[in-house]
Amino acid sequence: MSEAFNETPERDAASSFLRQFARRRTSAEPEERCELCSTALNPLHQHLLDPKKRQILCACDGCAILFCGQAGAHYLRVPRRLRSLIDFQISDLQWEALMVPINLAFFYRDTAADKVFAMYPSPAGATESLLTLDSWQEIVAQNPDLQTMEADVEALLVNRVGNSSEYYLVPIDECYRLVGIIRMHWRGLSGGTDVWKEIQRFFDDLRARSTESRRPVHA
Fold first, then answer.
1. pLDDT band for position 9 (50/70/90)?
2. Which residues contact residue 51 at a Cβ distance below 8 angstroms, ignoring those fewer than 6 apart?
3. What is the mean pLDDT of residues 14-40?
4. In a 3-state reduction of DSSP, which class is residue 218?
5. What is the rounded distance in angstroms from the CA atom of residue 51 to the CA atom of residue 112?
6. Potential cystine with 55: which of 13, 69, 88, 152 (Cβ 3.0-4.6 Å)?
7. Are 77 and 45 in contact (CB under 8 A)?
8. 174 confidence band (pLDDT: 50, 70, 90)
9. What InterPro entries does its record include (predicted)?
10. pLDDT, tens digit, for every residue of 129-163?
11. Residues near 58 by beta carbon (within 8 Å), at least 6 away in sequence
12. What is the pLDDT of residues 44-68, one digit of tens each?
């Protein structure tokens, strides 16, 4: 059983980010602007998250420091670190216990809801999959890197499509970027060849930008 990502106000906010992403990719305007002060932004810029609305904003460095540098700040800064979890441990039975219907998903802890969400991209946007707490805790116990995942702003991104599996700890906006790619390029019932090429390109880029994180070797 699952529910559409955009069926609640919080999910509508996330879908709004996807619509913004689509406009930015197709717009003829030469530059993006900070959504807080309207300063022109470089292509690589800060993102802020409103954890209550699950809304992501583009921001300049100054606004990112101003709005995120103190306790109780309205926004959270989305980190930029990308980690490839080379030795990630999960069995097929554990994956099935997560009740994700496809082999592409991301997981993040929402502090407002005080729970871990399991989401998977679809042509309609990101969709929530029912997640049992016991199955998630078991996987966390096997993979200490997950204990370092920042609530709200980082996610475990899983790609088990095809013959190999990939696991990453990524900024939450990378997950929404993947969802936006799928929404823009999906055609027909199976998605078409273009969408799978774009998904492959996304993970090729992610792999190239990530640092490898391996399990410590104990004597």
1. very low
2. 76, 110, 111, 112, 152
3. 65
4. coil
5. 7
6. 13
7. no
8. very high
9. DUF5947
10. 877 778 899 999 999 999 999 999 999 999 999 88
11. 32, 33, 34, 35, 41, 45, 46, 47
12. 899 999 988 888 999 999 998 887 7
pLDDT of 122 above 90: no
Per-residue tokens: 111: 């502090």
How far apart CA 174 and CA 81 sit, in angstroms, is 11
Integer Cα distance of 127 and 136 in angstroms: 18
DSSP string, 117-147: EEEEEETTEEEEE---HHHHHHHHHH-GGGG
For CA atoms 187, 47, 211, 165, give the dihedral sign: negative
Copy the structure tokens of residue 16. 């709004």
pLDDT at 75 over 70: yes
In 3-state terms, what secondary structure has residue 163? coil
Helix (H, G, I), strand (E, B) or coil at 102: coil
Q: Residue 184 is encoded by which pair of tokens?
A: 């823009």
Spatial CB neighbours of 28, under 8 Å, sequence gap ≥ 6: none
User: Among 11-15, 104-108, 111-115, 192-196, which is the least confidently predicted range?
Assistant: 11-15
Gap between the Cα atoms of 57 and 61, Å rounded: 12
| Residue 7 DSSP SS3 | coil
